[in-house]
Design goal:
The structure is a homodimer. By secondary structure, chain A is an alpha+beta fold. Chain A has one domain (about 10-110): HIT family, subunit A (2-Layer Sandwich), CATH 3.30.428. The first copy, chain A, contains 2 helices and 5 strands. Chain A has helices at about 10-15, 60-80; strands spanning about 20-25, 30-35, 40-45, 85-90, 105-110. A 5-stranded antiparallel beta sheet of chain A has the order 1-2-3-5-4, with helices on one face. In chain A, a hairpin with a 7-residue loop joins strand 2 (about 30-35) and strand 3. Chain A is globular. The termini of chain A are far apart. Chains A and B meet through helix 2, strand 4 and strand 5 of A and helix 2, strand 4 and strand 5 of B. Strand 4 of chain A pairs antiparallel with strand 4 (about 85-90) of chain B, so a sheet runs across the interface.
Amino acid sequence: MPDRDPECVFCGIVAGEIPSTKLYEDEEILAFEDIHPVAPVHLLVIPKRHIPTADDVRDEEGDLLGRMFLTARSLARSAGIVEDGYRIVMNVNRGAGQLVFHIHFHVLGGRPLGKMG
Amino acid sequence: MPDRDPECVFCGIVAGEIPSTKLYEDEEILAFEDIHPVAPVHLLVIPKRHIPTADDVRDEEGDLLGRMFLTARSLARSAGIVEDGYRIVMNVNRGAGQLVFHIHFHVLGGRPLGKMG
């Protein structure tokens, strides 16, 4: 089982103790729908391991982040949002809007997207 | 030399034919300052190979995308924007605001960031 923070809501989702609408899962990655969507399509892709922020990603975890990116790309295809456009976002720390301190790629689409920040 | 699109401005930057303020470079990745910054810190991380959109990333290029992510993270540290927060963004196709069709991670920081789209 990956490292877990007992206070972390995303770790709770990984453990199956907090419900989610799962879209993809493998040994290291989980994707599910954001419960507070800001766009018609708003998905989250997370590592199962508890990594608080992008700044905590280890140098040897580039491969994991790459697979999270590929997962985001594939889910955008499945959601039918590629042609009209979508955005992959990772917020780092509170000043950027990070609310859950377990890293996640947001995948936003299904409407024209405004400024990126 | 990586694949190049002769019409692409980022390929021109990679080739050194279009000037840029380079921040990082290795065999496969280049990072430089955005010439139209939307935040006090606005950096771009690109692959040297011409990949038009995230949807064109090959399954075997996850590692490349992961290293691009690690580069973005490291440059955020160098720029001193970690504590106050920063955002990593990739826009995919015009509806999301993609202007240059050669994939790039935006790294935005140096001010509080608003909505992500």
